[in-house]
Amino acid sequence: MHWTIKRKLATATKLYLVEPEDNKAIEIKIQLPTGEYVEIELNHPFPKNVYYKSLANGGFNYDPIIDMPITHYSKRNTLRNLRNSIAYRSNNSDTIDKLINLVNTMSDI
């Protein structure tokens, strides 16, 4: 991932985890102060490029009846849940390690 992308992600205002089970995540959504967010799936290699999605049109387009729960967490709880998710399902431990390092650089959360 390019350093400019990491710098932009470090300005995140909120972190959300998609959790099929308590304290075990399969995806992280990083909300940026510009009204955009980035999704990173934990079972794939850490992305070299990210796609910014707008929050303007319905947010995450989340349907609580069909979709897995999306939960907003503090930085500390996000780090805890990411560590708990390392051996969960087919999650990529390298991706989670890189996300933990990225979350540790975030100061506005």
What would your notes on this structure say?
A five-stranded antiparallel beta sheet has the order 4-3-2-1-5. The chain is an alpha+beta fold and 109 residues long. It has helices at residues 3-9, 75-84, 93-105, and strands at 14-18, 27-31, 36-41, 53-54, 70-73. α2 (75-84) runs antiparallel to α3 (93-105). The chain has three helices and five strands.
Percent of residues in helices: 25-40%
Q: Largest beta sheet: what is the strand line-up?
A: 4-3-2-1-5
Structural class designation? alpha+beta
Global outline: globular
The proportion of strand residues reads 15-25%
> Could you report the average pLDDT, rounded to the nearest whole number?
92
Question: Short description, anyone?
Answer:
The protein is of the alpha+beta class and 109 residues long. It is built from three helices and five strands, in the order H-E-E-E-E-E-H-H.
